[in-house]
Amino acid sequence: MKTAGYSEVNIQNFTTCWRDGLAFNALIHRHRPDLIEFHKLIRSNATHNLQQAFNIAEQNLGLTKLLDPEDVNTENPDEKSIITYVVSYYHYFSKMKALRVEGKRVGKVLDSAIDGQKMIDRYEALASELLEWIEKTIGIISNQKFANSLTGVQQQLQAFTTYCTIEKPIKFQEKGNLEVLLFTIQSKLRANNQKPYVPHEGKLISDINKAWERLEKAEHERGVALRQELIRQEKLELLAQRFDHKTTMRQAWLNENQRLVSQDNFGYDLPAVEAAMKKHEAIEADISSYEERIGVVVELAGEMETEGYYDIRRISARKENILGQWSLLKELVVGRKARLEKNLALQKTFQDMVYMIDWMEDMQVQLLSKDFGKHLLEVDDLLQKHSLQEADITVQAERVQTLNSAALKFTTIEGYQPCDPQVICNRVNHVSTCLEELKQLAAKRRSELEESQHLWAFFQEVEESEAWIREKSSILAAQTCGKDLSSVLRLLQKHKTLAGELLAHRSLLQQTMKKGKQILMEKSFGTGGIQERIMEVKGEWKRLEDQAAQRLGHLQEALNFFQFSTETDDLLAWLQDAYRLVSSEDFGHDEYSTQSLLKKHRGVREAVDKHRLHVVTLRKHMVALPLHYRELDEVQSRMGEAEQLYTEVAEVAVLRQQWLHDALAVYLMFSEVNACEVWIDEKEQWLNKMEVPERLEDVEVIAHRFESLDQEMNSLMGRILDVNQIVQQLLDSGHPSSTEVRGCQDHLNSRWNRIVEMVEQKKDHLDSVLRLQNYLLECAEIKSQIQEKRKAIDATQYVGSDLGGVLALQRRLSTMEGALAVLEPKLLHLQQEAEELAISHPAKAMEVLEPFEGISVEWEELKRTLQGCEDSLMVAGRLQQFIQDLDSFLTWLVQTQTAAASDELPNALEEAERLINRHAALKEEIGRYEEDYERLQAVNELLEAEEAPLPYAALQQWLQKLDVGWNKLLEMWESRREVLVQAHIFHLFLRDVKQAEAFLNNQESALAHVELPATVETVEAAIKKHKDFTTTMELNLHRIKAVIEAGESLISQSNIYSDRIRERVNTLANRGNQNRELAQQWLERLNGQWGLQRLLQDCHELGDWVAEKMLMARDTSRDETQKLHKKWLKHQAFMAELAQNKEWLEKIEREGQQLIQEKPELGPVVRRKLGEIHECWQDLESTTQAKARQLFEANQADLLVQSYTSLDHQLHQLEGQLGYVDQGQDLTSVNKQLKKLQTMECQMEEWYKEVGELQVAAASVPQQGQVMDTVSERQSAVETRIVRLIEPLKERRRILLASKEVHQVGRDLEDEILWVQERLPAATSQEHGSSLQAVQQLMKKNQTLQRELQGHRARVEDVLERANVIASIRSPEADCVRAGLEQLNGLWGLLWAETERRQLVLDAMYQAQQYYFDTAEVEAWLSEQELHMMNEEKGKDEPSTLQLLKKHLVLEQTIEDYAETIGLLSQQCRQLLEMGHPDSEQISKRQCQMDRLYVSLKDLVEERKSRLEQQYWFYQLNREVDELEQWIAEREVVASSPELGQDFEHVTILQEKFTEFASETGSLGQERVTAVNQMVDELIDYGHADAATIAEWKDGVNEAWADLLELMETRAQMLAASHQLHKFFTDCREVLAQIDDKQRRLPEVRARQGGTANTSTLQRLMQSFEHDIQLLVTQVRQLQESAGQLRTIYAGQKAEAIAGREQEVMHCWKELLTSCEECRVQITTATDKLRFFGVVRDQIMWMDSIISQIGTGDNPSIPSSDITGSGLSGPFRDVSSVEVLMNYHQSLKSEVEARSKSVLQCIEMGKTLLAARNPAAEEIKEKLDTVVAKQYELSEKWDKHWEVLQHMLEVHQFAQEAVVAEAWLTAQEPFINSKELGASVDEVEQLIRRHEAFRKAAATWEERFSSLRRLTTVEKMKAEQSKLPPTPLLGRKVFLDPQETSPARSQGSPLMRRIHYEQAEPRAERPPQEPSPSSVARRLGSTVANYTPIMNGSSGYRSSLEARAIPVMGEWLGV
Predict the structure, then answer these.
(1) What angle do CA 637, 642, 646 make, to 5 degrees?
(2) Is 1909 helix (H, G, I), strand (E, B) or coil?
(3) For 17-53, what is each residue's pLDDT tens digit?
(4) Which of 227, 1100, 1153, 1936 could bridge to 1940 as Cys pair (CB 3.0-4.6 Å)?
(5) 3-class SS string, 789-831
(6) Residue 1932 in 3-state DSSP?
(7) Which bin fits 308, alpha (ψ -120 to 50), beta or left (φ > 0)?
(8) What is the pTM of this model?
(9) Residues facing residue 1909 across a β-bridge
C-alpha cells in the first residue's frame, strides 16, 4: 500500500476511508513530498484537507478536479467517483515513476553491460586454467605403473589419497564457481534482454563437465587399479605363508611313504600274489590321490610366479625339492608294482599251461579219424570241419607261443626273479612237444581230405562240361539264317550271347583240364579213366567252336544284304514323296499361301540336302556286300534308280524355291498397294464431299476427324515407304514383272501426293473458320462475365456498421478484383486475336471488331464502378478494423495481465523450469503484440487525420485503458520474472541440498554401523577403511560447503525462500559438523583399540616367551656331573638373553603407561595385564638367579678335569676308527661309511666347541696348583689330538665319495637294466587278445609302456652319460660299469623297437576285434528286428492301425538308415581283406552272413508294411464311405425342398443358392465319390482280403450319389421353370415401363424438332431414339418367345395371366411404334428440307463464285505484265495469253462438269420433296427454280465468254502469222528490188541460183498467204448478220475451230512461243526427236511458198493489216 506508514491513514474501502482527505494528501506526499507538509495536517479539518489535495492535484499534477470536498466529506461518499479519481492519481504517478525508472534503467544497463563483460573475461580465464589443470592431472593419474611390493603400493595409495582429499576439492569448488558465474552471466543478460552469452568452443560448461568426467573416470580407474594392486600384493603374502605351511606337511608325508614302498613281501602262489597286488594298488591309489595336494603346492608356486612375487627364488627352490621327492616316490612305487606284476604274470602263465595241455589231448583223438568222404559234398563238409579245427589249433598255438614266451621271459630277466628258471623251462618244453604233435596230425589229415576233394571235383566238372557242349551243339544245328532284317538281328543277338557263353566256359574247361592233369601227376588214389575223359571233352569242344564260327559268318552276310534292301526302299519312298512336293504347280494365290508354301519348301530343301549323304552311304554299302548278293539285278537297278531320282529332286527343288520367292514378293507389293489405294479412294471421296460449316460445333467435329485423319496418314505413309522399298528391291533383282511393278508404284505415289495437298488445303480453311468462331464465342462469354460482375458490384453496398459486413464486402470486392485480374489478360489476348482476324478476314473485319468494342466499353464502366465502391468501403473498413483490433488487443491484454499476475510458485525444479519457459514465452508474446500496440496508435492518428465520423470520446477512453494496461503488463511481467528466477535458483539449490543430504545420510549410516575389532589385524583393517571413509567424507565436504555457500549467497540476495534456505543450510552445516565429529571420535576409538590390542599382543608374546624360559630354567633332567660346565655355560647364555629381553618388558610397560595416559578408560585392563607380565618376569629372574648360584657353587676344577678326560677318551676312540680304511664293497656299505664319517665330523665339531668352552671356564677357575696343572696337561693333549684328526677325516671323505660314485653308477645301471628287462616281456609278448576288451586293455598297457619309456628316457640317458664317464677310467670297477653300459644300450634299443612293433600288431588286432564286435552287435540287432517284423499284431481301428503304421515307418526308416552301418562294416571288411588279415576268411563269412540277414530283414519289413497299409486303407475307406453317405443324406434334404419362390427376386435368390449348392455338391461330391471308387478299385486290384465287403460299400455309395444327382436335377428344373415364369412377368413390367418412358420422350423430340434448325442434331436425336426402340424390339420379341414357351408349359389360370400380360405389352408396343413412325416422318421431312436448303445454298454460292470468275480476267496465274502491252485492252495481248485464258476457262468448265452431278442431285432432291408434298413445298419450289436459273445463267455466260476467247485467238493467230509473213517479205524485198545483174558469168549464174531459190521459197509461202486471205469467224458472223457477201481478210482464215482449240491442242502453245520464224522449215525436214509444231505454224509455213506480193513495201502492208484487225476485235468485243 502506498499510504502505509502514514499516521491516521488506513485504507479499507473507497468510501469512508477517504472522507478526512488525509489519504489523498498521503498519496501526493508519497510521490511528491515537496508539494505537501503532511505533518501539519489535522484529521478533523477534513474540508481543508480535501480542498488542499484537490487543488494541488489540479495545479501541480494536471489532474482534473472531478470531486469537490462536499462530495467526499459525507456519510456515504460515492464509491465509483472516488475510484475514478484515485485511478487518475494512479495513472499520473505510474507515468512519473516510469520516467524515473527509465533513467535508472539506462544507467543499470550500462553498468550491467560492463559488469557482464568483466564476468565473461573472468569466466574465460578460469575455464582455461581449470581445463589445463584437468588435462595435466589426467595425464599424471593415468599412469598405471606400480611398485612390486606391498610397502611401495601402500605409499602410492597414500599419495593418491592426498590428491583426492586436498588438491581435487579445491578444483571442484572452482568448477562449481564457474557454473555459478556462467549462470549469473546468463541471468543478467536474459534480464537485460541481451543476446545470451555462449562461451567459445571448448570452454562450455558441457566441455568442462566432459573433461571433469574424464578426470573422475581416470581417478576412478587409478583408485581401482591401486586397490587392486594392493589386494594383489596382500594376496601374494598370504599365498607365500600358505605355501610354506603346505610344503612342510608334504615333505613329512613323502618321507614316510618312501619308507613304506621300499619293502618287498610277496607270496609264492597265485592267490597270495593277487592279494599283494591289491594291497599295492591301495597304496598307489593313496599316492595318486595325494598328487592333487602336490599339485596345489605347484599351483601356489606357479600363481606366485605368475603374479611376480618378489621372493620367488625361495619358493621355486622349495617347490623343486618337493617335486624331486615326489618323483622318487613314484619311481619306487612303479618298481614295486613291476615286481608284483612279474610274480602275478608267472603264476597266471603256469595256470594257462595246465589248461592248454588238457585241450590238446582232446584234439588228437579227433584228428586220428579215417573218414575221407564218399562224394564231393561230404568231402567239403569234412574240410570245413577240419578248417575249424585247424583254426582252433592255430589260435591255441599262438596262445601256447604266447605262454611259452611269457614264461621264458622270467628265465632271462636279470635282477629280481619270481621263480627258478629250470622249472619254467621244463614246463615250456612239455607244452611245445604236445603242440607240435597236434600240428603234424592236423596237416596230415588236411592233405588227405584235399586229395579226395580234388578228385571228386574233377569228375563233377567234366560231367557238367560234356552236358553243356551237347546242349549248345544241338542249338547251333537247329537254327536258320532268317528271312528279313529283324529276324537276322534277333539271331545275331542270340549268337552273341552264345559266343559269350563259349568264351566264359572255355576258361572253366581249361581249368578243369589242368586239374585232371595235376591229379594224374600226383598219382593219388582213384585216378583210373581220367585221361580218356579229358580227350573226349576236348574233341567235343573243338567241334562246337567250328560250328559257332560258321554260323556267325552266314548271319553277318544276311544282315548286310537285308539292311541294304531296307535302306534302299526307305530312300526311294522318301525321294518319291519329295519329288511330288517340289514339282507341284501350286505357287499360292495370295501372300499367306505363298509364305506357307515357301516355309514348307525350305524344310523340303533341308531334308534333300541331308539325304545326299544317305545316297553316298548307300552306294558304299552296296560295294561292301558279298559277291553273290552284289551281283543280283535287283540290287543294281534299285541303286541306279535311287541316284537318278535324287538328282531330279534336287534340281526341281532349286527352281521351285526361286519361283516361290518371286511370287511372294509380287503378292506382298500388290497387297500393300491395294490397301493404300482403298484408303486413298475413301479419303478422297470424303474430302471431295466435305464442306466446311459455319457453326462451331460442326467445325469442331470436322477438326476432330482431321486429327484422326493425320494419324491414319502417318500410318499410311509408312506403308507407302515400305511399298517403295519393296518395289526398289524387285527392280534391283530384275523381277520379270518390273514394268507392272514400276507403274503401280508411280500410280500410288501420285495419288498420295494429291491426297496430301487436298488435306492441307482443307485443314487451312478449317483452321481459319474455327479460329473465327472461337473468337466470337469468347467475345460473347467475356461480355456476359463483365456484365455479371458489374451487376454484382452494383448490388454490393455497405449499409451496416459492423466490421463483419465491411470485411464481407471487401472480400467480395477482392474476389471480384481477382476475377477481373484474370479477365484482363484474356481481354488483351482477345484484342490481339481480333486484330489478326481482321487482317486475315478483311471482308469480316467489322463483324470481328464490333464485339470487341462493346467489350471494351463494358470493361471500362466495370472498372469505374469497382473503384468507386472500393473508395466508399475503405474508410469504414479501416474504422471497423481499428475498433476490432483494439477490442482484440484489450481482450488479450486482460488475459495476459491475468497470466502475468499469477501467484503460482513451483514445487520442483522441473516445474520451475517449465514456469520460466512459459514466462519467457509470455514475454515473446508481449514482444509480438508490441508491434500491434504501436500500429493501433498509428491507426488512431491516421483516423483523426482523415476527418472521418468517429466516436472520439469512446475511442479516447479505450486508448487510455490501452496505455495503462500495457504499462501495467510490463511491470507485472518483470516482477513475475524476478519471482520465478528466484524460485528456479531455489530449486537448483534444493537439488544440490538433496545430493548433499544423500552424502550425509551415507556417512551417518556408515558411522552408525561400526564395531570395535578384537585383533590387531582387524583393527588395522578398520583404521584403513576409516581413513578411506574420511577421505571420501572430505571430498563430499567440499561439495556440501559449496552448497552452503550458494545458500548463503541466495540469502544475501534476499531470495523469497530465504527462510527455507537458511533452515536447510543450517541443517546441512550441523549434520556435516556432527558427522565430522563422529568420524573423529570413531578414529580416536580405533587408534586406542589398536594401541590396546598391540599392547595385549606384545604382552601375550612376552608371556609365552617367559613361560618357555621358565621351563628351561627349571629343567634338571640331565646328568649334572657329566655336563656341569656345559650347563653353566648355557645358563650364562640364558641369563644374558634375559638381560637383553629386559628392554622388551620395559618397552611394554612404557607403552602401557602411555596408553593409560592417552586412554584413561583402558587403564584397568592395561594395568592388570602389565601386572601379570611383571609378576611372571620376576619369577623367571628369581629362578634364574637361584640356578646360577647353584651351578656356580659346584666344583669347577673337577668339572674341568673330568671334561678333558672324557674328551681325550673319545678322541682316542675316533683315532682308532680312522686307522681302519674300508672303501666299501657296495653302495650300501659306502653309504654306511659316509654316515659314520659324517657322525665323526659332527662329533669333532662339538668337541672343538666344548674345548673352547672349557678353556673359558678354566680361565675363570682359581689357580690351585696341581689341579690346574692337570687341567693344563689335559687341555694340551686334547688340543693336539684334535688337530691331528682333522686331515685324516678329510682324506677319508674323499675316498668314500669316489667309491660311492662308482658303486652308485653300477647300481643305477643294474636298476635300469632290471627296469628294462621287467618291461621287455610285455613289449615282446605274443598275446594279442581274443576279444575287443582284451585287445583294448593290451593297447592301453602298451601305450602306457610307451609313455613310461618316454618319461624314463631322460633317466636312462643320464645313467648312460655317467656310466660313459666312469667307463673311460681304467680300473677294475670301471670294467663292470662298461659291461653294464653295453647291456643297457642293447636292452634299451630292443625295448623301443619291440614296443613299436607290438603297437602295430595290436592296431591290426584291434581293427579285427572291433569288426567282430560291431558285426555281433549288428547281427543281434538284425535278429531282434526280425523277430519284431514277424509279429502279427494288427490294429483294431484306424487310429491304432495308423499308430502301428507310423511306428513301422519309423522302424523302416531306422532299418534303411542302418544300411549305412552295414556299408561301413562292409568297407571295414574290405580294408581288412586288403591288409591281408589272418582272419580274412572268417571276416568274409561274417560279412556275407550279415548281408543275408539284412536283406531278409528288409523283405520282412516290406511284407509287414504291406499288411499294415492294407489294414489302414480298409479302415480309412470305411471312414470315407460313412462320411460320404452321411454327407449325401444331408444334401438330399436340401435337394428335396419344395420351396419355389414368391416372386422373381425370391426365385433368383433360390436359384442362385441352389446353383451354388449344386455346383459345390457336384464338384465336391464327384471328387469324393471318385476318390472312394478309386480307393475301392485300387484295393480290389491289390487283392485285398476284404474285397467283397469293399465292393458292397462301393455299390451303396454310387447308388446314393445317383439318387442325389437325380433329386438335384429335378429341383433345378422346377426352379428354372419358376424362374422363367416370374421372369416373364418381371420382363413384361420392365418393357411396359420402358415403353411408357419412350412415349413420354416423344413430345420432347417433337419440341426439339420445332425449336432447332440443325439437321444433324435432329438426326442424332432420332437415331438415338430409334436405337433405343431397336433394343426394345429385341426385348419384345424375346418376350413373345417366352410367352409362347410358357403357354406350352402352363395351363389354366397361369396360361390366361401369361396371355393377358402379353397382349397388354403388344398393345402398348404397337402404339409406341405408331407414334415413333409419325415422329420419324416429321423429323425426316424437316431434315430433308434443311438438307435441301443447305445443298441449294452451297450450290448457289458455288455457281456465284464461278460466274464471278468468268470474264473478269482477274486470274492470279496470269501476270499483269502479260495482260497489258500489245495495244489490246485487257489480258488479250498475244496468242499465249489467250491460250492461258482459254485453259483457265476450260478448267472452270471442268469444275462445272464435275459439280454437275451434285447439281442434278440437288434438283432431284427438290423434285422428290415436291413429289412427297412437303409442307414447305412453295419454298422448296422457289429454291429449285433459283438453282435451275443460276445453272442456266452459268452455262450461258461460259459459252459466251468461250466464243470471245475463240475469236481473240483467231485474231492474234492472224496477227502473228501476218507479222511473220511481213517480216519475210521485208527480208526478200531488197533482193527483188536490186538492180545488179552480174558483171561476169559466174556472178550471173550465182544470181540466177539465188533467184531460183527465192522462187522456191515464194512458192512455199504462197499457201500461207492464201490462208491469210480467208474470212475469219467474226467476218463470217458479221456477214451473216448483215446478209452481205463476206469480205476476205487477205483471203485467209485466222480463227481456228473450237475443236482445234481444245485443251489438248492448246497444250502446244508453249512450243509456239519458242519458234523463231526466220528459221522455220518444212515438217518433213525437222528431226524426229524435236516436238511437232502446232497446226497454225504448219499453215503459216505452207502459205509463204505460194505467196505473191502485191505491194512493194512492207510497212504499208503492216499498217493495212493492223487497220483491218483492230476494228474487227473492237467490234466483236463491243469496244
Answers:
(1) 150
(2) strand
(3) 888 888 888 888 888 888 888 888 887 888 888 888 8
(4) 1936
(5) HHHHHHHCCCCCCCHHHHHHHHHHHHHHHHHHHHHHHHHHHHH
(6) strand
(7) left
(8) 0.29
(9) 1931
